[in-house]
Amino acid sequence: MTVTPGEPLPLHLPRDMQVWSYQVSHRTLLFRSFWQSGDSTVTEIEFVSVLGMKTRSSYRGLTVREVAADPEIDRLLNLPEGPEPRYRRLHLLSDGVPAGFVVCGAVRVREVPTGH
User: Fold this and answer.
1) Which of 12, 49, 69, 77 is least enclosed, having the fewest CB within 10 Å?
2) How many helices and strands (H and E) does the chain possess?
């Protein structure tokens, strides 16, 4: 599932998530759920065309919600006018508590078989 600009958020992923990788050359941030015994899949959430981020290394459940404006994000990314309309400002929440942000072009969520 790809969540593009204009599609509704918030998105809630109840599984505990961790930062899995960041590819500088592709500006892609990937979070993956922790595998637990008995799980046949892990959940991945991929942020594409990342302009900037501030994240934890892990989250106890992850909620992603969009905000129209956030002066702190714009200041940290040195974007006084804010990002271009094709980008989304996304707040990350863990257990309902603010826990970072990502500014990106799109979000993809998928279930990946573990092979266990």
Assistant:
1) 69
2) 1, 11
Domain boundaries, the chain: 2-113
In the structure encoding, which two tokens stand for residue 6, read together?
């204009």
- Residue 95 makes CB contacts below 8 A (sequence gap 6+) with 60, 61
Segment 28-62, tens digit of pLDDT: 999 999 988 888 899 999 999 999 999 999 999 99
Is residue 47 within 8 A of residue 53, CB to CB? The reply is: yes
CB-facing half-sphere around the CA of 32: CA atoms within 13 A: 12
> What distance lies between CA 60 and its chain's CA centroid?
14
* pLDDT tens-digit map of 56-85: 999 999 999 999 889 999 999 998 888 888
pLDDT in tens, 92-109: 999 888 999 999 999 999
